[in-house]
Structure formats: C-alpha cells, structure tokens
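Researcher: Let's do a round of design. I'm pasting the structure tokens now; please hold your answer until I've finished.
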C-alpha cells in the first residue's frame, strides 16, 4: 500500500533545502492521494516553515478537500515542540491527516520520538522507518551533531601519485596548487601569476572543493597551512555561503595581514593567548593545545552550533584528527604528478568506498564507520 517512491521524492525535495536549512535538518514531505502527489515541500531557510507546512500549503485549492484522506510521507519525524516555528504535529492533527509514513525519528532531544507518540495518541496511523538509512544519510550532519554531540567532520586533501602533499623544500602548496618559488618571490594565496605552478588537482576538482566548502558550516586549517599558503578559505569558484573559518594559532603567529584575519568572513581563532579582543567577525577562543585538541575543536564547534566541518590541511592537523578517530568522511584527490620526496600525505587504514575520476585526477572517498 505504501510506496517507497514517495519517500524517495521526499529525499529529492530535502536535498534542495539542505544548506539553507542548516543548522536545522532539511526535511522533504509529500502528500499522496490515490497514487497522485497533491502536495510537496521541503524545509525553508533556517527559521522558516518546516517541510510539512510547505507541503500542505502547496496543495491546490481544488485538491484541498483531499488532504484528510491523503497519506503524508515525511523524511523525518514531524516536530512536537515550539522552536522558531509551531509544532508540525499540531498542523497535521488540525488538518485531520489520518495516515503518515515517516522516514526516521528526530534525534533532537526536544523531539526524539515525541512527535510520533503525539500523532499515535491522536489516533493517527503512523508507519516509521521507510528508507530509514537514506533518510538518516540525507541529514547526516544533523544526526551526527545531535547523536554524537559534535560536528560531522570531512577531511580533504590532494596528494601526488606517489603519496606526497607537497614536494621538496622551496615549493609551496595552497588550494592544492603547488608553486615552485622563484628567487625572492613569496607565495601569495591565489596570486600565481609569476610562479611556475605544478598542479596536483585541476580546475574541475578545484571548483568541486569550493562547492564542498559551500555545503559545510565551518572550515579548518592548521597554523602552518596559513603561514605557508595564506589561503582565503572562501567560496569563490562556486555559489553559496562561506563556511565559518576556524584557524589554529597557538602562539599568535598569524598576523592581521593574512587573509584569514580579514573581517569579510566569520572567523574563530583558537589560541592559547588570553584576553584577545573579539570583533564582530573575528572571535578568539582560548583553549589548551594538548593531545585532546581535536576533541576541543569539536566542542568549540558544538558550542557555536556549527553542524559540520571540512578540514583542508595541513598534514599535522589532518593526521591528528585521523589518530583521534574523529572524522566521518575523507575526500582525497590523487593527481598524476610524481614528487619523489617531500611531505607525506596523511595515512589511515579504512575501507575504500568510492572512486571517481575527475579529469586526470582520481577522487577517493573514504568513510569512517563505527
Ligand atoms: C519537522 N520538519 O522540516 C524540520 C524539522 O526552530 P524550529 O521551529 O525551526 O525547529 C527546529 C527543529 O525542528 C530541529 O532542531 C528539528 O528537531 C526539527 N526539524 N522538523 O517536523 C522539518 N526541519
Ligand atoms: Zn516541524
């Protein structure tokens, strides 16, 4: 009687609301009457109406009398609490929708099964768990954040065919671009005019990385990467919001003329120095730099309600997170260049999940599963 194709449609809809809804989950909802979709919607931008509300509102006037007898498919348990918006459960009850198919329960402590309970107590027929794994996957950042009390963590780097992040001394890397330094010329982030660039990745992977940045709440690099590459860590080759920049600067080596210190993008600097003045877009957090640093960073993001983090280097920062087991996904570009020596790429032992070709690069995606 229930058809997974409608839950699949919920997931498609949810995908479209993904980034704007953050830190809320993006939820897709579909109203089906007699094997016909009469309404559909997904969660609006953060603070706006939920998927169920948009779905019900989308029903055409001539179909509104069908709502009561239609089945509501929804990729996440309808909320039962007052947040920025009223409970979706109340709306469902008000519209006397009798049949519901729910993808998965909501891990948020204020909901966590209460929505389903409320609907069942109101006499609704609620089926839970259709395409559950896919529904969880579609809000993987939200689920990780609420279940593990930390952001969803993605590692990203580019390595040469023989497994190096950068070649021998005198050569610098930024944004995956390896620059052969010329006499007396300092590498400047993004200005490559007078250098001899050696690419690990290509224009396509570079654009893809900017798309990835636009999908995450925060981006992190270590001190050495800032000092060496002066990266901007923004979304220039794609559209969408810039992630909050997280910068490690234990002893205050990163002066104000580095791109990460400009005030254009919200930036949080983690340091051991005390009493540094916070500005609107530049916040300092004093933390202890010890072996627990990856967990400390995760806690800072949790406190700031940042659901996800993409870590783009350097080697030490990436390896520390790997060694702490604190990562969910790794996206590794492998280019055709052979360096022979230099800084070795981070290493982990994990099952290879997916392999894709991006022009002459391979994209290797690893998953870290419990
Ligand atoms: C739903 N449908 O589309 C979403 C839900 O502050 P609010 O009112 O926007 O509520 C946010 C919480 O509601 C969020 O933490 C999560 O538990 C749930 N999200 N629920 O029924 C939706 N986005
Ligand atoms: Zn809701």
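Researcher: That's everything. Go ahead.
Model: Designed sequence:
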């Amino acid at each position: 009687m229930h058809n997974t194709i409608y839950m699949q449609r919920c997931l498609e809809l949810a995908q479209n609301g993904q980034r704007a809804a953050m830190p809320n989950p993006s939820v897709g909802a579909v109203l089906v009457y007699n094997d016909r979709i009469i309404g559909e919607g997904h969660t609006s931008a953060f603070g706006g109406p939920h998927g169920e509300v948009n779905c019900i509102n989308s029903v055409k006037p001539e179909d509104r009398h069908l709502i009561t007898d239609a089945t509501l498919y929804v990729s996440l348990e309808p909320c039962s609490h007052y947040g920025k918006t009223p409970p979706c459960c109340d709306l469902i009850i008000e519209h006397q929708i009798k049949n519901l198919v729910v993808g998965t329960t909501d891990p948020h402590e204020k909901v966590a099964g209460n929505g389903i309970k409320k609907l069942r107590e109101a006499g609704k027929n609620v089926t839970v768990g259709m395409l559950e794994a896919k529904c969880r996957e579609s809000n993987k950042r939200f689920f990780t954040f609420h279940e593990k009390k930390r952001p969803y963590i993605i590692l990203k780097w580019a390595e040469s065919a023989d497994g190096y992040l950068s070649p021998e001394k005198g050569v610098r890397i930024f944004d995956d671009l390896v620059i052969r330094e010329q006499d007396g010329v300092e590498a400047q982030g993004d200005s490559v005019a007078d250098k001899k660039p050696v690419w690990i990745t290509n224009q396509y992977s570079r654009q893809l990385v900017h798309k990835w940045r636009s999908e995450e709440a925060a981006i992190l690099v270590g001190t050495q990467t800032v000092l060496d590459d002066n990266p901007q860590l923004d979304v220039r080759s794609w559209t969408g919001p810039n992630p909050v920049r997280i910068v490690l600067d234990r002893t205050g080596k990163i002066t104000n003329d580095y791109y990460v210190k400009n005030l254009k993008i919200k930036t949080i600097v983690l340091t051991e120095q005390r009493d540094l003045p916070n500005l609107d877009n530049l916040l300092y957090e004093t933390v202890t730099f010890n072996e627990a640093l990856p967990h400390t960073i995760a806690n800072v993001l949790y406190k700031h309600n940042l659901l996800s983090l993409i870590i783009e280097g350097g080697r030490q920062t990436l390896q520390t997170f790997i060694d702490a087991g604190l990562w969910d996904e790794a996206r590794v570009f492998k280019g055709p260049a052979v360096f022979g020596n230099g800084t070795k790429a981070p290493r982990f032992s994990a099952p290879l999940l997916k392999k894709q070709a991006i022009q002459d690069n391979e994209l290797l995606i690893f998953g870290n599963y419990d």
